[in-house]
Predict the structure of Probable thymidylate kinase.
Amino acid sequence: MYICLEGIDGSGKSTQILLLEEWLNKCGFEVMRVFEPTDSDIGRLIRKMLRDPDATGENFQKTLALLFAADRMVLMDEIEAAEQSGKIVISDRCFYSSIVYQNDPSWLYELNKFVKIPDMVILLDLDVETALKRCDGKDSFENKAFLEKIRERYLELARKNDFFVINANNGINKICEDIKKVISPKIGRCI
Ligand code: ADP
Ligand code: TYD
């Protein structure tokens, strides 16, 4: 099973993924945690480019979209191998991040047509102001207007697809309980 957590920067994905892993391990599942951008050479290049002051330019964004897709493609073998050995894969972001953060969805779907679609997508939804306060302006992407647009795109995507939308404006433990409630029925243990 391939589960993806999505949400704007600072929505609590990394925090919740660690708690989820702990819970799933207690339930007897082996877990592989992955994240995008990855720590591959391509992922490292992406992170460097994200710090560039021109990161919001249109052609820069297209270049990033290509790199994100390449970085993701490399990750797919790892995910497939983990799934085949019975592990639950929990991913911090997946191709839906490209759909909301980069432009031109039809091109992005084409670009990402060979990547695996997660079995479950959990969207941590949070107002932008709180998210920004939490992450303290880490990179050039983290500005209010931009993240407002991203949040709206996420919510629209969630309506069109079967995402589980979780209110991330709660305490860490409450959010974790809400996530467990949506995962439990899918894994058939730990209900
Ligand atoms: P993301 O991976 O989505 O960027 P993080 O999990 O790194 O988000 O969380 C961003 C910051 O907010 C971290 O400092 C984290 O400790 C804090 N945080 C996470 N969840 C909550 C929460 N529910 N309430 C308050 N602070 C939180
Ligand atoms: P990440 O390190 O997950 O940031 P955070 O922990 O703050 O959520 O991701 C880095 C940035 O990359 C983040 O702003 C979202 C962006 N991103 C894209 O623009 N497109 C993509 O396809 C992915 C996977 C991430």
Notes: The chain has a mean pLDDT of 94. The helical segments are 13-26, 41-50, 58-84, 95-101, 105-111, 128-135, 144-160, 172-187.
